[in-house]
Automatic annotation (TrEMBL):
Pfam families: HTH_31, MLTR_LBD. Gene3D superfamilies: 3.30.450.180, lambda repressor-like DNA-binding domains (1.10.260.40). Residues 34-88 form the HTH cro/C1-type domain. Signal peptide: none annotated. This is Transcriptional regulator. GO terms for molecular function: DNA binding.
Length: 277
């Protein structure tokens, strides 16, 4: 596979359309005549007026013309479309207006971070890159999820495991929410690294092999929050509610350190039983 999964110009066009169509005209201070509106959300001319750009320019953006909006135009569109902070960052990435790193993304764990994983025991922890490839882990994370060492290297990816692996995808009590959030994280990563061919191939594989991924990917949700809550239905320890934190080291910003801890006393007891097996 040699072609990118997504064309940035087409993605920008689709993103602008979906964000325009979700807006309620009343939230933008516009009068609403229901009988005159055949499509949801705001019209192109309304967004163009709110952003202070020409309707022709907005039309060309939504037609995926090879344009590169200026920083001022990007900011004006973000305001007009009432984008959330993560969506605003995504828009800047799509238009290549956010400063990019020239360093090659790392595919191996930084040695100090590997040592930190051991220091974090008994908290389950693992290290990932921007693709969510799992680069290193401590024994506790292996017991909580799966023996990563036994997996082929190409399957050591948290998104692949959550969506495609026959056992792990059944671990979560709310798989729809886990998938939705993970895909939103992955979309933000793709916008930051659009030329990463390995990442593009991962997305293509998930789109073609998983109906849920394809459906949620098309919704274009974007999220970069590194804190959350999941309930794991562990085959040996029962339900374990887990709170997780994802940290990005300043020295290695391409890498992400995920640390898990039990969310309540019952989950802590279940985790203790699991880790002492």
């Amino acid at each position: 596979m040699t072609s990118p999964t997504i064309d940035p110009a087409r993605e920008l066009a689709a993103f602008l359309r979906t964000r325009r169509e979700r807006l309620d005209p009343r939230d933008a201070g516009l009068s609403v005549r229901r009988q005159a509106r055949r499509t949801p959300g705001l019209r192109r001319e309304e967004v163009a007026e709110l952003a202070g750009i020409s309707i022709d320019y907005l039309v060309r953006l939504e037609q995926a013309r090879p344009l590169r909006p200026s920083v001022d135009v990007v900011e004006a569109l973000a305001r007009a479309l009432r984008l959330a902070p993560d969506e605003r960052t995504y828009l800047y990435d799509l238009t290549q207006q956010r400063p990019r790193t020239t360093a090659e993304p790392r595919t191996t764990a930084a040695a100090p971070l590997t040592r930190l994983l051991a220091d974090l025991s008994p908290l389950p922890a693992m290290l990932m890159n921007h693709r969510y490839d799992i680069l290193a882990w401590n024994p506790e994370m292996t017991k909580l999820l799966i023996d990563f060492e036994a997996l082929p290297p190409q399957q050591r990816n948290s998104m692949w495991l959550c969506l495609i692996h026959p056992e792990i995808r059944e671990y979560y009590t709310d798989p729809e929410r886990v998938a939705r959030e993970g895909i939103a994280y992955l979309r933000a990563a793709w916008a930051a690294y659009p030329e990463d061919q390995v990442l593009n191939e991962l997305i293509t594989q998930c789109v073609t092999r998983n109906e849920r991924f394809a459906r949620l990917w098309a919704e274009r949700d974007v999220k970069t929050n590194g804190r959350g809550h999941k309930v794991i239905r562990h085959p040996d320890a029962g339900d374990i509610a887990v709170q997780f934190e994802v940290l990005m080291p300043l020295q290695d910003p391409d890498q992400r350190l995920m640390i898990c801890r039990a969310a309540d006393d019952d989950s802590q007891a279940a985790m203790d039983r699991l880790l002492t097996r």
